[in-house]
Structure prediction request, 344 residues.
Amino acid sequence: MNLADLNKIARAMVAPGKGVLAADESGGTIKKRFDAIGVESTEDSRRDYREMMFRSQQAMSNYISGVILYDETIWQNAADGTPLVRLIEQAGAIPGIKVDEGTQALPGCPGELVTVGLDKLAERLAKYYERGARFAKWRAVIDINQASHIPSMTAIHVNAHALARYAALCQQAQIVPIVEPEVLMDGDHDIDRCVEVTTRVLNKTFQELRIQRVELEGMILKPNMAISGKKSKTQASVAEVAEKTVRMLKACVPAAVPGIAFLSGGQSDEDATAHLDAMNRIGGLPWPLTFSYGRALQAAPQKAWSGRSENVAAGQQAFTHRARMNSLASKGEWTAAQETQKAA
Ligand code: 13P
Prediction:
């Protein structure tokens, strides 16, 4: 492993004003997104949609540091035959790859999940590296359900263990691991319960990373924010989300980690931007805080595009706008007024 090179990639992923586009929806997830806009999910429609984003020159060159791809996409070519990974590289961004293989029910823990995909991972990583991937992603999913006493210690432990196994294999393959332990915001819990659970999850994850000798300088953390459950009656303000998230991360994440790139997790586009901005306005943090959003970057372009070739420019404009808003937020320079200004 060449740690200096891993660190260089990790730092480029969180370079000032830039963040990661999570375009790694699995076949099932992208079908759900396309169903919502009335588009049939086919190999070609998925390619056309992603090509539209990767050819958004302004967004890709100025605001996007890297793109997380799904296995199908990393092997796909643009309509003119250029590999999609080359489009990303030509824009000055770094191709990355989702390598987990989704979740399975966790035996003995009703209602809980464990992320799978470690078998043959070393071989898959070698092929992805050859194709151009320089970072990877593995997402662990932890739910909060107060009535069912979820999450269990078992779910937290096995998911942290798998994240560390994955991260160690990535570094061995000269690929920067994005370590993503996602505590879902689906429940009716308040923000303090989210902080409590996320703290346990982060502490266990870093314990496993240390045990498995993962070099912290060669990884990126992708956490959820400290946020109220969607069904909670008390919704924390932007200022409270920012203050509690920063406080939690400072307590749990070593300064050696080169950067933190949040998932959006079902927040509205503007909430995801406002929260990131408010955190960066607090300042004085040991790591850059940026975005690695899926839904909060893509909901608007998906709608604008709606599967029609005559809407490609509108889709690109919507994508560029959201990328620019989140770029500003990563520097603590976003204001709500900028939302209504057209992308330059
Ligand atoms: P969302 O921003 O839509 O949560 O997706 C980010 C991601 O990569 C989830 O694994």
